Amino acid sequence: MDNSDDKSLLDLEIVASLKALGGDDDPELFADLVSMFMDDTPARLQAMDEALSAGDSEALSRVAHALKSSCGNLGAFSLAELCRAIESAGRGGDVDGARPLVEQSKTQYERVRTALEAELA
Amino acid sequence: MFRKEFEELKATGQLPSPSGVGMRILTLTQEEDCSIDELIETMQADPALTGRIVKLATSAQVSTSRPISSLNEAAMRLGLKTVSTVALGFTLVTGNRSGACTRFDYDGYWSESLACGIAASKLSRELGRADPAEAFTCGLMAAIGELALACTHPEDYAEIIDRLASDPGLDRKLLETEAFRINHCEVAASLMADWGLPERFQDVVMYLEDETGEDSLDESSMQLFQVLVDGAIIAKYCMAGRQADPVLLEQLNLLRRRLDAGDIDLAELCDEVVADWVEWGAVLELPTEDMAERVRSANLEQQLSGNKVIEVVEAAELPVRVLAVDDDPLSLRVLARHLKEAGHEVHTARNGREALAMTLKLRPQIIVTDLNMPDLNGLEFCKALRRSRFGKRIYVLLLTGDGNEERVLEGFEAGVDDFITKPFIPRVLLARLRAGIRLVRLQEQVERDQEIHMKNAMQMTRLNRQLKEAANTDFLTKLPNRRCAMAHFERTWKHAMDTDTPISVVALDIDHFKRVNDDYGHDVGDVVLQETSRVLRQSLRRQDLAARMGGEEFLVICPGVAVDVASHIAERVRSAVEENVVEFGKFKRNVTVSVGVAQYEPGIVDIDHLMRLADESVYSSKSGGRNRVTISPGLTPKLRSA
Question: Which sequence positions carry the modification called Phosphohistidine (chain A) (predicted)?
């Protein structure tokens, strides 16, 4: 995996700026954000699976949108991009087209998680 | 409306109440046949109280003649009712100096109240508006509702005080009503009614914190209201001194301009108030001496000139109250952090519905909201906001997931002011926010200018009314003057002629007045005139008008009655004056009046003619030995005596 892929997996500049943003006033900010992300994302991925099997394209795009926001904030841009694609597929009613994207998201999330844990250590 | 709520407060048994002597005064004044002596005796039982009343009576004098030395004299000068009220006020201060509410600053409360009373009293004396002693007492008790709520609900009120301290933008009265279903102004008015204080007091404290309060008041309450509003501003300055904030300074600036019109210098007035404040603080054992340091070391002139309206561009850097709205907790946390980092006061909501409820409560100046949210999305939220009066003025910045032009246009149609796409670059977000703040500040300034404009216009109206009033009133006795009497007489005369109803006049002249003046001095002469006017006024029917025509001459116009009734009125006046002992300094005796009565009859050509007949009867009374009523024989004396 090359460097540019790393950067889109987790943008370290964003991570650094979030750590700096917390500063002295709110030193737990970054750790809080990561734990929010790890608490919420598995449930969202599961909700996407359920939307797929129910053929509920609207629910699918709504969940993808929410996850996209979180990813964008943390600098997990490739996962955010996947979410954007799922959201727009869902909006177009293309549940089948979204299925492989959801699968990719699960793998990508595991990689983001590992990268984030490394940042916390 | 809030009678029930007040009774509930009363039932707690914790309401502030006058202590010992005060309570006895209260009971006495509520008895019908309470005598002056009884009251004065009661007050004298408390030497400290007596001293305070005498001191106040001296400082509330209009002309700075001799100091007043006894309670009797104070009662004479101020009137018994006012002396009782003043006594009540003082016993309240001494009896309610601490309590269970941990957040309530009891000493601070009474010190500010004292400053308010002193300032209101000074303004009253300088401007010749309202009664200085009444202004003092009403100022001292104006905020009693706050003390009452702190005493009856110590814990809940502590919480309100804390909330107000953390967010000065909150409305105290609203918080109180939410918690107790009654606010401190209503409590104050109810307490005053309960204590039998003048109705004016109740009206004034009820509307004191109401911007449009004056519209609800009648003429006599209005004057008291005005000196109290201004007194409260000066009192705030006494407490804040060099720490006065821009809002207070702006109020002082307006006050200074208002006072300039009456040729009163605000800075000098403040100095005098502070000096009295310290002196009275010592008398009432309040720590005003220490507090005065803050205001003594301040320079009001400098503070006011330094308080130029802050430049708008500069103001864009000042913190604002922001409400951030996003359904994704993580995004919301980051957004709020960025806003806080820029120094703003940040509140958060997780959807449009929650945001709407918080907007009403918190009154944010700027809202940053996400577009896609369950339960009222960003656009629906914005539309709802723009439908409310307050929501129209808030600057709304919309966060959108994409730059889709259709969505953006939809946003502007819903009423958003600007948008920014996510994920946002923090510096861009803050730059856009500054543009919004600049707009908000400009709008606030326009509103403030308009308010100043409106206040000035109101001031002009009030001033005109006062001038008109002054032109019609005799300054010394507060009776209508000749000018006013003649205008009134013209109307009454015309009405009598038109409706063919009787009309009579009573003319009076104080006996040997010149001798009083020569023997006892003009001060005593003035008091005699004031006392005679008071007694005269009290002896009349509602529809009669008494006026001071000049010197020691008075006239009463009695519409609708012939000479039989008018002569009864005249006799009532004569005996009331005779029975009233005027006491001032070495002077202690009654005076008498010579009275003449005349009625209209065909053949009397005009008002002057009728007045001349009444005057001739006054001469008859004088030559007949004074202190008597003579009825004019009218135009046909021979026929009548036959």
Answer: 65
